[in-house]
Each structure stands twice: as C-alpha cells, then as structure tokens.
Amino acid sequence: MGSDPTSGPHHDGGRILDAAEGVLVALRRCTLAEAFNELARTAREHRLPALSLARALVAVAENQPRQELNLDAVEVVRNVWGNLLDRLRDRRDGAGPMAHQRP
C-alpha cells in the first residue's frame, strides 16, 4: 500500500500556508507573492516559525482560536492584522461604513 500524497504534515502545512496567504490577500488586497513575503517577514521579525504564524492567522480569521496554537503567534496576529480582521468582520456582519447608507 502506498501513502496518500494529499495527506500528512507536509500537505497540511502547505494548505495552512495557502490559506494564510489567502487571508492576507483578502485583507490587504495584495498579490499572493506579497502575502507570502509579508507572512515570512512578520514571522522572521517576531522570531516565530512561519507555519505557526500561518496557523494562528487562519484560526483568528475563522474566529476559532484553538488551544494547540502558539500563543505568541496568536498575539502577533492580533497586533499586526487585528484591525484589518475586525474591519473585515464588521463589513461581513453589516456593521461597516456601508451598513448605514441607503441603497
């Protein structure tokens, strides 16, 4: 029996990095390359593994922080991208600046 190439830690890590890049693309309206560079730079500046930061970013964006997350990474996510995540949630929930305008 062969192993499934679409499962396992390497595949899961790649999926998390892709998802985190997608979050940054949505927040920043930037390219995937810019999102990757921002994630890598932020991880380096805060001396965190990029995958830990990516996991925390995705969890916070999903509003589902989990206990197994690196708490330092969660704090960095909230400090670096918290305002953008809050604004995105406000728009999604209808509480953003457009919510009070008439059609």
From TrEMBL:
Q: What is this protein called?
A: ANTAR domain-containing protein
Q: Which Pfam families match?
A: ANTAR (PF03861)
All copies of the ANTAR domain together span 1-58
- Report the GO molecular function annotations: RNA binding
InterPro entries associated with the record: ANTAR (IPR005561), WH-like_DNA-bd_sf (IPR036388)
Q: Which organism is it from?
A: Mycobacterium talmoniae
PROSITE patterns xref list: ANTAR
